[in-house]
Amino acid sequence: MIKRTLYISLTISLLIILSVGSYLYIKYYHLPQSEIEIAENALADDELILISHFNNDLLTTIINYMVGKDDPFPIPIQKEYKGLWDTLYTGPANFRDNLDQLIFGWQLSIKGKNPDDVEFSPDDSNVAIIASGKFDSSILQELLAQYYDIESIDENNYKLTHITQEPKARVCPDDNGKKKTPITFYAHASTTLLVISQHKHKLSKIINRINSKSNASIDLTNWRNFRKDNITSLGILLPKQLHNTTSGFSKAIIQQTVNGNPDFISVFGGASIDYLGGKIKFDVDIFSPDQELIKKTEKETKTEIDKYITSAKGFSPTLAELSKVEISSEAGILHFSQKWDFKTLKKIPDIFGELISSIFSIGRNSDTGKENISEESINEDPWDYSINRKLSNLPPYRTKENDIAPVSVDGPFAIDIKRVGIGDKSNLLELELTTKILVPEIKGFWSNSQAKLTLNVDSVKSKDDKELLRDEFCIKKLKGFGKKNHESSEGLNSNNNSIYIDKTIRLIPEANFNNIDKITGKIQFTAPVNVKKIPVKLNIGSIVEESGLRFFITDIKQQSISYQITGEESKLLEIRALNSEGKTLQKSFSSRFSGKTVANFRGDVKGLEVYILAKEKSHEISFSLNADDILSAEHTHNKQPLPILTEPNIVDIEKWTKLKTSTLTLEEIKKRHTYWWSAETPKIAIYNKSPIIMFFEHDYNSTWKNSLSIKLLLPFIDELVKNLTAIEIQVFDSKSKPNPGIFKEFINLYPGQSIPSGKYIPDFIFKDTPYLKKKFDMLLGLEQGEKINALEGNLLIKLPQSIDKTITKLPDFGNPILIGENTIFLQEISRGFIPRIKINFEGNVDKLINIVAITKTGQRIFPAQQSLKDNAWIIQYDLRSDIKEIEVIIAKEQAIIKYPFQYEPNYN
Predict the structure, then answer these.
(1) How far is 43 from 451, CA to CA, in rounded Å?
(2) 93-116: per-residue pLDDT in tens?
(3) CA 372, CA 353: separation in Å to the nearest integer?
(4) Neighbours of 714 (CB within 10 A)
(5) Which tens digits make up the pLDDT trace of 604-653?
């Protein structure tokens, strides 16, 4: 019951907001009460189900109290109208000033008295609007003719049919579908009255009822008693016959209201304003003859609203204050009422700041009725716009030492393909492009300069001249984040004396990486190189006019400024608030209401400065990238990979078994290898019953790292070097009994190599046995402060007894290569900070020894990095263009030696 009642209340409130918002720019004009009733009577035949009376005076009052009144003398600007309403409102018809009042009605033709006998179809409904004001029919016709074919029926009556002309711009299939059924309605227009109806005969009926001043066919007493003091009201009349016959939005409203409660017969919602008392009141009344139902709903609703207000006080005192609802009842009526004083309304912009403060714990909320107050925070390093003059003349781009050369350079611009790979969200072949320019070294970050890079990709062509760039014009929403292919990527990132911008594009599903030929697009760079700082008097109505821009202060509060911009809005770069000492305050957040901006600051505003663009530097180029260069990664300081001395191979079991249990003592380790005996992380167990020594450590109280840390000392066997799966550590999940899970890690034996000789170098030698040190962390899903109850698992040594070697070409994106039961595919080519080629190996991951890359000259190259993730090996090679093939080495047979371990962890 309570949920349904709250839904009724919220639905009516939403309808009021939507309705008033739809007519945001209507200037209210008080008609004599008799004329209001005449219009209502004309709509109120026995088919009326919804009636509303709208007025914009309330909304403009709210906006003015929140952010101040409009600038009385804005700079006129050329505007492109967006849609019919914008055309009527801002165009020559000037509906903002000339439209006075509007009454809306929804009529349904209902046949049959009982639910089972009701006949109803959407064609029987009629939406009608009666508007009064001052109308110039010639201007109206001129504006409407841009959207409708206008056919004169008789004096003052017209038929309007939506124009189905060929679109000037591209349209999507959905748009074409909408244009196949032209919208038609009928209108009556005079100098003081505008009546619109869906049906011609309904329009005639309404006009006749207005002219004859007909009485209402249904009882409007409750409606008029409700709306007589309101500025905006909405009423829903609920014939029980509609319970099972309506559909869509009407069904949602009606069923939620009468389903299970057929005695709810009507619902009214409205808003009124008390100018003398300085209050705005919102009301919702629900009518029902069932007094017991009304009393029960009243009690349950009060309980739920009290709970919500208590919760809201914790994150937004202003929202809690605005959420207070008075609930009462009388014979046949349940009342919901909210009263907001004008001072409370002025705090509406504070709600957003309070929510931000509650999330990030900034500022302090005030429960004293004053505005939300933040502790003062000073911007210690505000941007000095005079630095921007250094961007007037950019140097030619040159590749820095140890960076890879970009695919293309054009003057100051470097254009590169940063990454190629299959997108996680799109599952398509993606290319990430980047453009970069070099900038002087400064104190601070160039991202504060208001400079902007813009990157567009126009085309990706195949070698047979077919377009590979996916057309995303009609895609409503991309999976994941990012701009559509045809949209510009713009902004600025700064790093290491350069500024850059990236853009990711998606190719068509059938695109093949090896068939990409050319990528073309455009780059633009703009920077404000002359900026004027203008102090502004801290008064409501203060004005700055500069460079075709007009800045007008509409309201001032303790820690915020509201302002309106007209003219060339883009010329305003920044506003800065100052404290009593003239220091720049940190910005808090900004919000926008009805064309005005509310800027909030971390401290009391005692001064104001605006920064306006006077001159900017702009440079634009077109580019064409050769896809053959994607795999190249020429460094300014190239380094050759070290030669492969010993490849992983078959291992004689005796070679391992002759290695007795390690004779390395803990005292020896503690004495000579302090890293392995560090007291920083508590040791909970030490295993030394095999040739491998393991130290288990767990800092369970760590706030950022509470994983199980394992350190190993391993004897060095040449044939196991770079064998990915030769040594495996398993740890059982003791919390998942009786079927414990297994956490496992493979230990990769990658010794260092001498640069002069290329020989492998062990970490140390003890009694003629070379050793390697290894360390890794195992994530066991432990929470901070949680100890390990039982440490149990296996150390597995897997010695290859026979191996398979398969040489194949480097796979292409989207075209995996099968080797037995295993799959290999190309995951990514990266030309970023560490240029790499990544391939994935899926299948029998426990037997993969390694994958060796082979160049065109026959040089064999081990991976630069490898990891096991989601039961797949990710193998990475340093990016180079001469990789021709790969050799996949798999253990066909393995001799497995198991060393079980079981400890009760000792945290002492």
Answers:
(1) 58
(2) 777 667 777 788 888 766 555 544
(3) 8
(4) 24
(5) 999 999 999 999 999 999 999 988 888 776 655 556 666 777 789 999 98
Q: What does the CA dihedral 131, 132, 134, 135 come to, rounded to 10 degrees?
A: 30
Instruction: Locate all alpha helices (DSSP H) within 417-457, ordered by sequence.
Output: none
Q: Per-residue DSSP letters for 299-367?
A: HHHHHHHHHHHHHHTTT-HHHHHHT--EEEEETTEEEEEEEEEHHHHTTTTHHHHHHHHHHHT-SB---
Helices 248-258, 2-22: axis angle to 10 degrees equals 140
**DSSP-based three-state secondary structure for 9:** helix
Can you spell out the DSSP letters for 193-214? Answer: EEEEESSHHHHHHHHHHHHTTP
Asked if 206 and 195 touch (Cβ cutoff 8 Å), the reply is yes
Q: Identify the sign of the CA torsion 24, 26, 28, 32.
A: negative
Dist CA 403 CA 478 (whole Å) = 33
For residue 384 the two structure tokens come to: 């000095």
Do 817 and 823 contact (CB within 8 A), yes or no? yes
Q: Is 450 helix (H, G, I), strand (E, B) or coil?
A: coil
DSSP E strands, 638-747: 683-687, 693-697, 708-715, 727-732, 742-747
**59: its two tokens:** 């909304």
Cβ–Cβ contacts within 10 Å for residue 31, how many?
A: 16
876: left (phi over 0), alpha (psi -120 to 50) or beta: beta
- 588 and 374 in contact (C-beta within 8 Å)? yes
CA gap 827, 838 in Å, rounded: 5
Using CB atoms within 10 Å of the CB of residue 315, give its burial: 0 to 12 exposed, 13 to 18 middle, 19+ buried.
middle
Instruction: Give the C-alpha separation, 612 to 615, whole Å.
Output: 9
How far is residue 805 from each of residues 481, 648, 809, measured CA to CA in Å? 42, 11, 13
Place of tokens 């503690």: 670
What residues contact residue 836 under an 8 Å CB cut-off, 6+ apart?
A: 828, 829, 830, 864, 865, 876, 877, 878, 879
- Report pLDDT digits (tens) over 518-559: 999 999 999 999 999 999 999 999 999 999 999 999 989 899
Tokens representing 870? 């989601």
Q: How far apart are CA 420 and CA 516, in angstroms?
A: 11
- The secondary structure element, H or E, covering residue 95 is helix 95-98
DSSP conformation class of 812: B
Residues 6+ apart with CB under 8 A from 591: 349, 352, 597, 598
Q: Give me the helix-helix angle, 137-144 and 83-90, nearest 10°.
A: 150
Closest by CA to 469, choosing from 479, 456, 481, is 456
CA distance 258 to 237: 11
pTM of structure? 0.66
Decide the pairing of beta strands 157-162 and 184-189. antiparallel
Query: Which tokens hold the place of 472?
Result: 């995303």
For residue 721, what are its two tokens?
A: 């070097």
**Rounded CA separation 598/590 (Å):** 6
